[in-house]
Amino acid sequence: MQVLVTRFHLLLLTVTLAMTGVGLFRIPADYVYQAHWTGSAADWLWPREVIFVAPVLQVVLMAAFFLLGRALTKNQFSKSQHILDPALTLLMSVVAATQLGLLLAGAGSDLDFVRVTAYALGVVLVLLGVVLFEAERHTYAGLRMPWPVRSDFAWIVVHRAAGLAYGAAGLGLLAMAWFDLGLGMLVAGFVAATLVPAGLAALITRAVRNR
Predict the structure, then answer these.
(1) Final residue in a domain of this structure, among 110, 131, 147
(2) How confident is the model at residue 207 (pLDDT cuts 50, 70, 90)?
(3) Which of 129, 134, 146, 128 is nearest to 202 (CA)?
(4) What is the rounded distance in angstroms from the CA atom of residue 103 to the CA atom of residue 183?
């Protein structure tokens, strides 16, 4: 059965749900997250109920990847599973880490775990970018799409473009964490850094697949 959702993904969801439950008891009902600042004034406030977003988002991700796995043919699934499985793990881990950051902030901790997550994800994406940029064509390694990349030229173009995109995304997250642009900007950065390079790689792959 072609299933991309594993027990580890269910574990991540369970952990996030547990953090949400703890947040309901530990975070005051009138607490607001100061997600963005203009000068010395907070102009972007999130209510405590924002902690419910993470488990809902994880359920949506799991459902999307489950349906994607069922929609792929056996050949497409075998070629892309080694990419899609860790991709879902990364996305769900970032959501869980962000939820932990919200829980710690709401409970009064001085540890800005969302910034820690930004640093960690930034380093991971920079390393991924270097690996993709320097990768040589291989039967089993590299990006895998449902459609083939037939020529060496197209393979190099796709991987170098994806490598540059992931590297830039990682450096952007590191800069945002360093300059402490705020919780809201970091969360938006997580979304952009994980989705935009992947989408760009898919578009470039389709554009040069027959060259």
Answers:
(1) 110
(2) confident
(3) 146
(4) 13
